[in-house]
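# step 3/5: fold
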Amino acid sequence: MDPFRQMSDWRKNMDHFFGDNFWNEFENIIKPTLPQINIYQYDHELICIASIPGLTDLNKLDIFADHASLELKGVIDIDYTGGNVVKEEILQGVFERSITLPYPVRRDKINATYQHGLVVIHLHRLISDENSRNKVSIQLKDDT
């Protein structure tokens, strides 16, 4: 008997008993997301701060903003050699993180800076002209 199949069956039973999202609550405890991000919301601006230590080449970080989502791709590499690792708490490696933003943002007004291990991304709210109305034309339909 395949032990991995038993584990899959066990998880399905747990999902059925506790609900489909039961394991999602533990995912960040078991495997924290990279990079860690804080988002601060203002009336017409979002400030996103991402912790990316040891970034020496800004070309190794890609930031994409699309309507109401923000995506970061890159590598956290402390690049420290020598000695034996006794304790390692700073997460390293390739990351890809996508965040849903609380409102749509302008594509033409985004900037990012990097200082002291933090990427600060300024995003500005997309404000649509809600007062504009589109007149719908009505066509007369023949009875034939």
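# step 4/5: annotate
The two ends are 73 Å apart (CA to CA).
# step 5/5: archive (pending)
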